């Protein structure tokens, strides 16, 4: 296992994903973690992340002594390398030119980290890398040699082979560094001696054993939404404890076409999981009646969900555990958010606070996994591909895709329009090319001609975006012919719609959802 110390780089999670892709388990800890946590984790190697700080400023983060005392290989990336150099007696200074973006470095010497890797032609020792730094190492500490250089920096990478300390001025974790994954693999496999043991089978077996050890012979309840995370949790728990798992699936009337039936078919019929389906559409729609403020709608949907779920769970007298699909980025972010960095732009629907209220113990089997790992184990657990690769769907569902006050007939129209859009996207091979796509119901009416008559009906907006992290997004350039087919099918097949428009707004400033 590898320890990643986070000095505040935006890329820290990427480092962890690269290490996991190399089949090696790793965890991220803040750079000021105490020495006991480090020795308790017993890493075979440590990676120090980058940081927006400068080692020459006062009070900037330092490498904990426990890392340097651990006698394991250390790889410092960007700030991590500068901190390593500065703390071991070298010199770091502001570079004359900041370097940001692509760069070419020449490798020198025969370090096991970089030797024989090349993006150049035959016999050339050059790497295409991604740089993002203002400071640079001016003088190496004793014992270190340069293992790569650029015209701008004599020490683009350094190594002390005796102590197995390495520093990279560039970022191997970003895909722009073409040999980045191989460099990380060389560090974790070759230099640290870690095996490729973090496989789907090992992850699943570990989680099943943990669940059994934690839960013993007690019972567990899970709010199943049909999304990837709660679905994978359901299957894992079912395998671990069988009938001592009860899932509660709340149909709030704001789901996509046939969604409730599909969830029941997959889990109850096919996998034999015990699922209670609660048809609570009337309750949700009643609570939402006449409410048009987006944040209030979200709140009502969230609170109604909690009430309905609690009522169901209260009937399950023997339940002691509440399972949730929390994943590793949530855990890291809520740890980081203690400093107050997290900003709430939209109050996201979740069941936070439920376990305390319900006096249940919390079970989070996915809390150490990244989303791509959840997907991979979901597939190897036999969940359908279409469920695993489904676009994200917000907790408040169609409630935030019907602008203004929600009405049942609007939800029915939207469900049909959305299903047509998704069906055509899949048929044209575009579903997997975009990150998220959906229809939005606009409660305004526009004039049209349908057959011989004049129509005065509602408007559907189509939204499709491409994004990596959902924090920023581009609208997808779907072919006109595809948009045309979707539009004419919606207008012909869905009563109550006479106009279809396509949303061409990027995020920022527009959000992905319309509310
Ligand atoms: P926005 O609209 O903020 O969306 O650009 C970013 C991503 O988050 C999803 N989203 C939500 N998910 N509850 C959720 O569980 C919510 O209230 C919510 N609002 C937005 C959205 O679908 C997109 O993937």
Averaging pLDDT over every residue, what do you get?
93
CATH superfamily of the largest domain: Class I glutamine amidotransferase (GATase) domain
Question: What's the N-to-C terminus distance?
Answer: 43 Å
The dominant shape is globular
Which strand order do you get reading across the main beta sheet?
Answer: 2-1-3-4-9-8-7-5-6
The largest β sheet comes out as: 9 strands, mixed
CATH class of the largest domain: Alpha Beta
Q: CATH topology of the largest domain, which one?
A: Rossmann fold
Domain tally = 3
- Low-confidence stretches are 337-350
User: Which structural class is indicated by helix and strand composition?
Assistant: alpha/beta
Account of the protein in words:
The protein is of the alpha/beta class and 515 residues long. It folds into three domains: 2-191, Rossmann fold, CATH 3.40.50.880; 200-388, HUPs (Rossmann fold, 3-Layer(aba) Sandwich); 406-502, GMP Synthetase, Chain A, domain 3 (2-Layer Sandwich). The protein is built from 16 helices and 18 strands. Strands 2-1-3-4-9-8-7-5-6 form a nine-stranded mixed beta sheet, with helices on both faces. A five-stranded parallel beta sheet has the order 12-11-10-13-14, sandwiched between helices. Strand 11 (245-251), helix 8 and strand 12 (275-279) form a beta-alpha-beta unit. Helix 6 packs across helix 7 (228-241). The chain starts with a strand and ends in a 13-residue tail after the last strand. The model is unreliable at 337-350 (pLDDT under 50).
């Amino acid at each position: 296992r590898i320890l990643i110390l986070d000095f505040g780089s935006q890329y820290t999670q990427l480092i962890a994903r690269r290490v996991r892709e190399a089949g090696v388990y790793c965890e991220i800890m803040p750079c000021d973690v105490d020495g006991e946590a480090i020795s308790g984790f017993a890493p075979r190697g440590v990676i120090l992340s980058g940081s927006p700080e400068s080692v020459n400023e006062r009070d900037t983060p330092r490498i904990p002594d426990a890392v340097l005392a651990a006698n394991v290989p250390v790889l410092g990336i960007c700030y991590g390398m500068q901190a390593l150099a500065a703390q071991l007696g070298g010199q770091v200074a502001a570079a004359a030119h900041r370097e940001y973006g692509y760069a070419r470095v020449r490798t020198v010497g025969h370090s096991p980290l970089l030797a024989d890797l090349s993006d150049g032609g035959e016999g050339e020792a050059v790497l295409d890398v991604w740089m993002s730094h203002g400071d640079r190492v001016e003088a190496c500490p004793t014992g270190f040699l340069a293992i790569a250089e650029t015209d701008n920096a004599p020490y683009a990478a350094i190594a002390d082979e005796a102590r197995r300390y390495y520093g990279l001025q560039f970022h191997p974790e970003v895909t722009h560094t073409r040999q980045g994954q191989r460099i990380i693999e060389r560090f974790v496999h070759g230099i640290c001696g870690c095996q490729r043991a973090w496989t789907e089978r090992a992850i699943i077996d570990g989680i099943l054993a943990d669940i059994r050890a934690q839960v013993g012979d007690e019972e567990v309840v899970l709010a199943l939404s049909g999304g990837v995370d709660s679905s994978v949790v359901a299957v894992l728990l079912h395998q671990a404890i069988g009938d001592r798992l009860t899932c509660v699936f709340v149909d709030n009337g704001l789901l996509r076409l046939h969604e409730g039936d599909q969830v029941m078919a997959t889990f109850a019929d096919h996998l034999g999981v015990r699922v209670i389906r609660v048809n609570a559409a009337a309750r949700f729609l009643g609570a939402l009646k006449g409410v048009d403020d987006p944040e209030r709608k979200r709140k009502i949907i969230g609170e109604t969900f909690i009430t309905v779920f609690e009522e169901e769970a209260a009937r399950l007298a023997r339940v002691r555990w509440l399972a949730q699909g929390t994943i590793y980025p949530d855990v890291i972010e809520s740890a980081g958010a203690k400093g107050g960095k997290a900003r709430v732009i939209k109050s996201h629907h979740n069941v936070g606070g439920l376990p305390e209220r319900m006096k249940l113990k919390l079970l989070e089997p996915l809390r150490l996994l990244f989303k791509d790992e959840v997907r991979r184990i979901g597939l190897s657990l036999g969940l359908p591909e279409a469920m695993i690769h489904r676009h994200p769907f917000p907790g408040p569902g169609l409630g935030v895709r019907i602008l203004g006050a929600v009405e049942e007939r609007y939800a029915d129209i939207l469900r049909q329009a959305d299903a047509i859009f998704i069906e055509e996207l899949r048929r044209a091979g575009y579903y997997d090319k975009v990150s998220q796509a959906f229809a939005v119901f606009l409660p305004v009416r526009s004039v049209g001609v349908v057959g011989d008559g004049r129509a005065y009906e509602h408007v559907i907006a189509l939204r499709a975006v491409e994004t990596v992290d959902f924090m920023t997004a581009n609208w997808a350039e779907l072919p006109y012919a595809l948009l045309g087919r979707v539009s004419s099918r919606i207008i012909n097949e869905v009563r109550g719609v006479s106009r279809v428009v396509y949303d061409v707004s990027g995020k920022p400033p527009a959000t992905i959802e319309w509310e």
